[in-house]
Amino acid sequence: MRTDAAVQREEIRNIGEGYAERFGFTMPEHSIFNTGVGLTEETVRAISAAKDEPEWMLKFRLRAFHIFQNMPMPTWGADLSKLDFDRMTYYSRPTETAQDSWDALPDDIKKTYERLGVPESERKFLAGVGAQYDSEMVYHNIREDLKKKGILFTDIETAVREHSDIVKRFFGTVVPPDDNKFAALNSAVWSGGSFVYVPPNVHVEIPLQAYFRINSQAFGQFERTLIIADEGSFVHYIEGCTAPVFSKDSLHTGVIEIIALPHSRIRYSTVQNWPNNMYNLVTQRAFAYDHAVMEWVDGNIGSKVTMKYPAIFLMGPGARGEVLSIAFAGKGQEQDAGAKIFHFAPNTSSVITSKSISKDGGIASYRGFVKVEAGLSDIKSKVECDALILDPHSRSNTYPVMDIRSEHVAMEHEAKVSKIGEEQLFYLMSRGLTEEEAAIMIVNGFIDPLVKELPMEYAVELNRLIELEMEGSVG
């Protein structure tokens, strides 16, 4: 008779064997047009022309490109010295137009998303899906009952053409091009991403999802997502990301801008699973107005380098912000992640919960910033950073900054670094688990606060990814 432990061992082996089949597979490069290697002003103009954009957007891009050229590389955080902008392709169009039917996509693109399970998830769990393949959204669809409520969910290019009054009002206001070098780069060459608008007092009870897939070598993906929740509304948006493993480095530099208007609530969940040749350099920021609630749930696995710090600007009285993140750094990986909260109004509160795991020489860093402006009252903020180091070769860093300029603040900060205890392993192994299975169970318990905030199917997926990363961690 097979024991539960034996069954679990077989499941873990099957997960490992199926990883390349599920995520790391490659398809032939599918491009009907690309701008070639390198970045010049002509590249920017070619992208804008390919999208048949209005003049105001071309001007926005060109201004951002000149900012990017003149802005120095960051000298803090992860090592970016080997990132070569001149060896990347910045735009590749896989299809003529986005489709609202999976069957209308070219066979290789359709097979890619079928193997990733995206169409099945849409049928079972989601209110709408956007799928990006290299530079463009190839699929976008939303349930008819949500369309009738006035909810807009489309690719950002369509929004620029068909909802220009809303887009022009908000685009580049939350993350302006001069915010940082990579925000400038995205602003110059952005392509793809979602546009979401939820009307007043409308609640989208089932999540919307976007799935970003890079299929080309030495490629840059630069999606731009804009989400606006009008007064009293609610939406949950989920983002997933994968790419094959190539010998050449690729770059993912997304920008996410979110506006939570009074009394609205937005949850943005991310499960990013990049290969070890990916630079993942993302700017995510939200403005939360009177009594609005903004929540980031952020899962970062894989990549060569990740630098990502979801930020919330609490702009009105009663606004609340929460960031819950997990970073897993394995061999050859540096995860530099964290959160930023800015209190600009009285009676606001924030919570940052950060968990990191490092193994096989990986580096996991928490980099956080909490600021309270002068003269504010009734401010509450709590920061909790937990790090789990699985071997003597790995590293965990914590860089918290708190800029408190008001006297009426309740501020808490807690940081803890630990390793898997021998007593914990012994206890679980005495119940029939191997050392590796026991370690996986302990790690799953460590990340449980984040996992339980995800819809069930995504929680299961995240646990599977963690198990894959944990293979061979002990013994």
TrEMBL record:
Q: Which domain of life is it from?
A: Bacteria
Per the database record, which ranges form the SUF system FeS cluster assembly SufBD N-terminal domain? 146-209
Pfam families (alphabetical)? SUFBD_core, SufBD_N
**What residue stretches are annotated with the SUF system FeS cluster assembly SufBD core domain?**
212-446
InterPro entries membership: Fe-S_cluster_assembly_SufBD, SUF_FeS_clus_asmbl_SufB, SUF_FeS_clus_asmbl_SufBD_core, SUF_FeS_clus_asmbl_SufBD_sf, SufBD_N
BP GO terms, sorted: iron-sulfur cluster assembly
Report TM segments.
none
Record family assignment:
Belongs to the iron-sulfur cluster assembly SufBD family.
> Any idea what this protein is called?
Component of SufBCD complex
The organism is uncultured spirochete
Its ancestry begins with:
Bacteria, Pseudomonadati, Spirochaetota, Spirochaetia, Spirochaetales
